[in-house]
Amino acid sequence: MTRSQLSMWKTLFQQHLSPEPTLQGRLRTMVVRAILDGVLGPGTILPSSRKLAALLKISRNTVTLVYQHLADQAYIEVKPRSGYMVSANAAPKLEKEECVSNQQNAPNWDQRLPRKLWTLPNIRKPTNWQDYPYPFIYGQFDAALFPSREWRECVTQALRATAVRDWACDRIDQDDPQLIEQVQQRILPARGIWASKEEILITAGAQQANFILSEVLLGANTVLGLEEPGYPDVRNIFSSHGAVIKPLKLDADGIDLGNHFKGCDYVYVTPSHQCPTTIAMTQQRRFDLLEVATRNDFVIIEDDYDSELNFVSEPSRAIKSLDKDGRVIYVGSLSKTVAPGLRVGFMVADPALIREARASRRLMMRHPPTNNERALALFLSLGHHDMLIRRLTKAYDQRLALLGEAVRRYLPQWRFQAPNGGSALWLQAPKGTSVDRLAEVALEAGVVIEAGSIFFSKPKSAFAQRHARLGVASIPQTHIEDGIRLLADTHKRNLHL
User: Fold this and answer.
1) For 419-429, what is each residue's pLDDT tens digit?
2) What range defines the domain where residue 19 resides?
3) Are residues 392 and 362 in the same domain?
């Protein structure tokens, strides 16, 4: 093998980025990818295990084990007196065909895509937010707080032969019974909710629950009352399905119960830590809202996210726990506690609605991945989730206290109310400030903040432009003060923002 060929292997190994934690896994992934990408074509002779080990400065046993594994999988094969070579059938044969574009015959996609969902406004944050030193963003997580060992234990248990036979089949429209049981017996009772299994549906996050509700509930001119400011994707989801969105004011106790509900078919609320203001709806206001709903014959959709993350006292009972008539649809999620990428949420409602929602979910995706459901069921049953909530609550309490102190010191004209839980502050900047533009300039200094205008029904108004949401879930505690000082310096240098 020539020097240039050996050099290629060294370059491949150095450039290949892989999440594999072991050298063996990294080498195996690198070779497979090189074969599938055509870098190593059929018949290519591989370096001997001795030469490759010496070149990459790894154990010869590591190379030998990788070669044996790849041979078992038919990626490579033994050539007598020559060692290993890439198998002739290792990579799919792709025939290139010239495609001549004829724009005159192309479909008119502007006409075929009437709703233009991609144009809907959304919360803006850089996809590479982890590369920034001061990520004050909401809805992400700190890998240092994630219980990797405990989660690995649950995933390993879910991969045992008996467990795989249980969850790997197509459940059609059903959920993993162990996860349903854990939600029923551990998650819901903590919120004062007692539900039968027929009243629970697992969803791919709370977002899918909201989408399913819009699919099965909305008719022509359905009116949805939504907190103002409120969760933008709920506004997007329901309005894109034809709903009329009616903004509902807030006060210090939660949603204002004035004469705003006339004509509402549904009212969407986030009572535990209102999105985005973090206001916690008082217990009395929850009773009163349910009474108003009964009197005006509308249904409450209760998104109870962040309810577990409570610093001051025991959280108020969920509105659903007060519901005697099946008038409340309860939506929950484990994204803010376990991990956003897991995408597991749930819906609790009358069996008739759950039956319809289950049918809608089947048409959409049949059911969420049951391997994740089983691993999460084990995570809950072994008490790891309870432990994680305690860890997160302590960490977020400390971080929000530091964030509040830093804002008071460096941004004294910015107003906020310290929340009783959750993982974010909602701030109002001085008059004349455009947080939308400030966020863009701050990003250049490595500070990521979320402009709050997106949460308002009129985001371009001067009042909406003065708001920001700063999250602490993903920023190290030691970076909080420096990040706010940089934000304040950016604001001072750009007083027109």
Assistant:
1) 888 889 999 99
2) 3-86
3) no
